[in-house]
Amino acid sequence: MKIRNAFNPEYARSLTTEYLRQEFLIGGLFIPGDIKLVYSHFDRIIVGGICPRMPLSIQVSREIIGSDYLLERREVGIINIGSRGTVNVDGKEYVLDRKDGLYVGMGTRDIQFSSENPKELAKFYLNCATAHKTYPTEKIELSQIEPIHLGSTEEANKRILYKYIHPDGIKSCQLVMGLTTLEPGNVWNTMPCHTHVRRMEVYLYFDIKEDAVVFHLLGEPTETRHIVVRNEEAVISPSWSIHSGVGTRSYTFIWGMVGENQTFADMDEVPIKALK
Fold it and tell me: What fold, for 2-274?
């Protein structure tokens, strides 16, 4: 498991492109037959990608999380962005089609991931947060989530938002997670932008064409930076940072939040004229 340290915004201002990517960008998440986990000291979130050829289980180091198993004091949200696969949770199997999700509560000891077809692998993306209460494990099918239509063609941000894990749906201790798809011809997510002083966020961008990129924006509103993101790469957005991005074409992204609360609308909006 890789470790990323937390730091203040003044430090971020001084970073070169290379070091900005090193601190915030998470690439290589879906290596066939492997598990990749990154532990961030921003609200202690763990971001991971699992792409199994044969069944894979997560093994964690007690030196990092201080526990004998991953969910001893944690919870996890999982969304499959690949082909059909199965998550076995303490002996119970959950089949996840593409864009289906699964919430697994604190106290679960064994989680095993497998692909239905070894030639067409599942790609399990996960956000794992600290927890102090157990909520039941539940599957989330994309087809059962009520879509929320946002934005407009005039502002190039027409998009569809799906809430997977949230207080009014699949409940968790502190994790909030969902997926947003931009409609063809639209490129902006979350503009006008905002900060989450009380929550950090991680974006996983996918369904990005090979000849396209997303410019993910981060930093304080008056000290913005950008990171060029390609298909199936994730970006860590600290609570002091804006959360926004623009692509050269439309795309899809998974957002996961942890922190002080789970209130989706708890955002500090930033007027466009205030950005620098």
Answer: Jelly Rolls (2.60.120)
